[in-house]
Amino acid sequence: MKVPSTKRTVWARKETAILSDAFSTDPYLSEERATELAELLNRPARTVKTWFRNKRRKRSSLNTSSSIMPVVKNEPPIGEISENEISKIFHEAEIPFRWPSPEPTLLPTLYLH
User: Fold this and answer.
1) pTM given for the model
2) Judging by beta carbons within 10 Å of its beta carbon (0-12, 13-18, 19+), is residue 2 exposed, middle or buried?
């Protein structure tokens, strides 16, 4: 039996501002704070908790995807890595690239999808 889905909650700008302000103070809600915000916004506490959870996930997702270059620990600087080693690093990180010039010592140009 299929569970009926709930409708998407639409937040007004004022509500989003209140929630964002509370989130910047502390991204984790206590039960009391969730109830307080829910009463202030005239929304169910569960909806407020969901907003906070989604905001944390979005922040986490943005933090992890903002890095263009793969992080390689204990590796020499790019100028000291051979073309094959750079190709291997980008291949393992699944980032397509091409060399901008015949000089393999230059950084590759990234093509992000």
Assistant:
1) 0.53
2) exposed
Residue bearing tokens 């005239």: 42
Q: Which CATH architecture has domain 13-65?
A: Orthogonal Bundle (1.10)
DSSP one-letter string for 15-44: HHHHHHHHHHH-SS--HHHHHHHHHHHTS-
Q: Quick one: tokens of 71?
A: 């992080």
Read off the tokens for 45. Answer: 């506490």
Q: Say which range, 6-10, 12-16, 28-32, 54-58, has the weakest mean pLDDT.
A: 6-10
Q: What is the spatial distance between Cα 17 and Cα 19, in angstroms, rounded to a whole number? A: 5
Q: If you ran DSSP here, which 8-state letter would residue 109 be given?
A: E
Break the chain into its structural domains and give their ranges.
Answer: 13-65, 78-110
